[in-house]
Design goal:
The protein has 15 helices and no strands. The chain is 71% helix and 0% strand. It has one domain.
Length: 312
């Protein structure tokens, strides 16, 4: 494993600030702050998007989901241009307290990814910011400001991002949630599939240079999500529900399906191959996540029709 890969650039004040956070805060506070990273991580975001799309409001779910999948692809596309090494790579005084992939070596860039910009910061803005913009609720606006702020603070405290990584992650998320809806409105819902196809093809440019696994998984989720939107409109037409039992059931079964597919689709492949940074392993990862996305968003809602039979 080559630990010298990547570029090092930073401001001294960034390093001093991160050292201050890790050395000044008590261990309990650091553990709490570390936990805040979860508000920008995969599992919680899936639950939030699942609740919105499967239960609360399908249209809002599509709006939020579009912004989120765009963020999780554009972010690694930018990362693979700058190749900025994570802070703990170059500064012994900064500890990695919460690796991106806890099952891999903390210096494995393929697994841990590059540093600039912060993916968690982008995810938190695209998710909570999109929700706040779609609902026009004061409380949601507060959350849309607070959660990205806390997530960004967490990423700096655990030693995996410089402050400029966090700042630019926020800016990327803001650009997505404000610009994407303008473009969608120009196309209209009837031509939405054309816009989605154009977005996907543009994001496929990353295949020419991206080397980290986060790009391939993000591109796969984008493909599965965009296909699912069209599939659902033509063949499913499920209805949202306010029934708390049905909401919980949809979330639990959907989460189980996601986790099960994530595990089962890895079985046919050698673990070392999946963990490698080869282009072929990236393509396998792309198709894995595309299948997961389509199964959870496009196919899974078919079973919601059984609820009517149960409720009778």
């Amino acid at each position: 494993m080559d630990t010298t890969i990547g570029n090092s650039f930073y401001l001294d004040i960034e390093v001093r600030f991160m050292e201050f956070l890790q050395n000044s805060l008590p261990e309990t506070a650091i553990n709490i702050i570390s936990f805040l990273s979860a508000f920008g991580e995969e599992l919680l975001l899936i639950l939030i998007l699942g609740f919105i799309f499967w239960c609360y409001d399908k249209k809002t779910g599509i709006y939020v989901g579009t912004n989120v999948v765009l963020g999780i692809v554009l972010n690694p596309m930018i990362k693979n241009i700058f190749w900025r090494r994570r802070p703990y790579f170059d500064h012994e005084t900064i500890k990695c307290l919460r690796p991106v992939d806890s099952g891999a070596d903390i210096y494995d860039i393929n697994a841990q990814g590059f540093s600039f910009p912060s993916g968690h910061s982008t995810n938190s803005v695209t998710t909570y910011g999109s929700i706040a913009r779609s609902r026009k609720n004061r409380f949601l606006k507060v959350l849309a400001f607070a959660f990205p702020l806390l997530v960004g603070l967490s990423r700096m405290t655990v030693g995996v991002h410089y402050p400029t990584d966090v700042l630019c992650g926020w800016l990327l998320g803001l650009a997505i949630i404000f610009i994407t809806p303008l473009i969608i409105n120009r196309f209209g819902e009837e031509k939405r599939w054309i816009l989605n196809l154009c977005i996907f093809l543009f994001c496929c440019l990353g295949l020419l240079y991206c080397q980290t696994s986060d790009y391939f998984s993000g591109l796969g989720l984008m493909a599965g999500f965009f296909i699912s939107i069209e599939y659902e409109k033509r063949f499913v037409h499920f209805e949202n529900t306010k029934n708390p039992i049905f909401c919980i059931t949809r979330l639990v079964l959907g989460s189980i399906l996601y986790l099960a597919l994530n595990y089962l689709l890895k079985i046919p492949f050698d673990p070392e191959f999946l963990a490698s940074a080869s282009f072929l392993s990236g393509i396998v990862r792309f198709f894995r996540y595309a299948v997961i996305g389509f199964a959870c968003i496009g196919l899974y809602p078919h079973i919601f029709k059984l609820e009517k039979k149960i409720s009778k």
